[in-house]
Amino acid sequence: MSDQDLAKIPLVDIDEEGIFKYILIRVTGKETADGTEPSKLVVRGYADCEWHADIYERTQGTIKGTGLDTECLGGGRIEHNPEKKYLKVYGHSTGYGKADHAESKRVLLTKYKNYEIETSDEGY
């Protein structure tokens, strides 16, 4: 059951435009008979969330009751310019640390295939 639930979780859910905080989350299903735990990385970012923790709480709320676990792997900021088909992933989260921006870019490319996506460790 949790494998189906895991498959239903979108890889990317970010605001359509602007500069906002984001987090990288590992979503994990129940251990299978062979001892493996199915998982995937997802990116979440919303301008109406003041703190990275607010994004994580929102995400946990949508996953609650599915039997899946979540772990925040870090955060930063995203600049999203749909007119230019451009995303910039940068900075860090004071509470969760810096996300692996290269991994975040990989996940974002699953939805934004035609975008230029820049990563940087600079900025907050």
UniProtKB/TrEMBL annotation:
Superkingdom classification of source: Eukaryota
One Pfam family named in its UniProt record: Ocnus
CC per GO annotation: cytosol
Entry-linked InterPro entries: Janus, Janus_sf
Gene3D superfamilies named in the record: Janus/Ocnus (3.50.20.20)
GO molecular function: protein histidine phosphatase activity
Keyword RNA-binding: no
GO biological-process terms attached to the record: cell differentiation; sex differentiation
Key words of the record: Differentiation, Sexual differentiation
Binding site for substrate: K21
Active site: H52 (proton acceptor)
UniProt xrefs under SUPFAM superfamilies: PHP14-like
Record flagged with keyword Hydrolase: no
Coiled-coil intervals: none
Similarity remark: Belongs to the janus family.
PANTHER family membership: BCDNA.GH02250-RELATED, JANUS-A/JANUS-B
UniProt function note: JanA and janB regulate somatic sex differentiation.
Protein name: Sex-regulated protein janus-A
